[in-house]
Amino acid sequence: MVGMHGDEKNSTALKDGIRRWGRELGFDAIGFSGTRVDGAAEALDAWLVAGFHGEMDYMAAHVTPAGNKRALPTELVPGTRSIITARINYRPASADSQEALADGERAFVSRYALGRDYHKLLRARLQKLADRITDEIGEFAYRVFTDSAPVMEVGLAQNSGLGWRGKHTLLLDREAGSYFFLGEIFTDLPLAPDTPVTDHCGNCTACIDACPTQAIVAPYQVDARLCISYLTIELKGSIPEALRPLLGNRIYGCDDCQLACPWNRFAPLARETDFTPRHDLDRATLVELFAWDENDFNERLAGSPIRRIGFERWLRNIAVALGNAPPSEAVLGALRSRADHPLPLVREHVAWALARHATD
């Protein structure tokens, strides 16, 4: 297939081959997008002007005279003509979200973070896919991305037919729901884009209604400053006191908008064993996790996306959850054990949690 640039028949054959190789590598879907993400630049600018990005200053970075690179793939990677988009399911079989959320003594971790860090896994798989393409057609220009650079992943995936943007801003697919990761290969190959998927949310507002903090301020618009995923992962400092009771037992991320979505009734389980829950994170109690020392945290969460928040924020998050937990000697004992913690951020949230129990 060498020399298929510009040859529509050969281009179609290559796309078929890429889909087949993607499945062999464990991807659940492969699509193809052009380099335009219509409306993305305007939507991003409005979101940033509203301050909805909070402390995520990187969202406002990567601006060139032509605009924000997030909305301009050809500015991010000059020479890009096509983008290969890939999807891989992560929903674990053993993790009952509703059961975990209903038990205030247990810790809830977003389902995507229960196993190994998806960044490395997807990047390695995408590299293998690029290598397979090289074996078939020879050298070509490309760059692999997995939530690792200013890329409008959902817009590109929508353009490539992998789904549509739900009102919670995540990508949705009628057969796969939203429990999946996305990755991309920017390439100079002229691969015809697939047909975008139309919106199938209709009048449904289940995700908006389900958000504990009402962070979905309008359809397709999330104020990150209210989002539990932002508060427990991205926010480096103190969690606003008014929002702490709303976090419940969620110590890393939040899946409520996905749990409420009717399309996730059809979400398949992950085929990838690396996404299987590790260290019993799908059933651990708050008291157990709060007892970890920093070595425990670093060793047990090696290779986990959770490790990137660091031990200080880990303790901060669990302290809030313990403040929301049913009162017990175990809960109060755990909090008192950290009342004089050397880190002010931890002490503050422990004091709040203890005071909360004192007023119950």
TrEMBL record:
CC cofactor: [4Fe-4S] cluster; cob(II)alamin
Domain of life: Bacteria
Name used for this protein in its record: Epoxyqueuosine reductase
Binding residue positions for [4Fe-4S] cluster 2: C211, C227, C254, C257
Gene3D superfamilies named in the record: 3.30.70.20
GO terms under cellular component: cytoplasm
Organism: Sulfuritalea hydrogenivorans sk43H
Subcellular locations according to the entry: Cytoplasm
Cofactor binding comment, as recorded: Binds 2 [4Fe-4S] clusters per monomer.
UniProt similarity note: Belongs to the QueG family.
UniProt binding sites for cob(II)alamin: R70, D147, L171, L182, S229, C254, D255
Gene name for this UniProt entry: queG
Catalytic site positions: D147
Reaction equation(s) it catalyzes: epoxyqueuosine(34) in tRNA + AH2 = queuosine(34) in tRNA + A + H2O
Protein residues bound to tRNA: K236
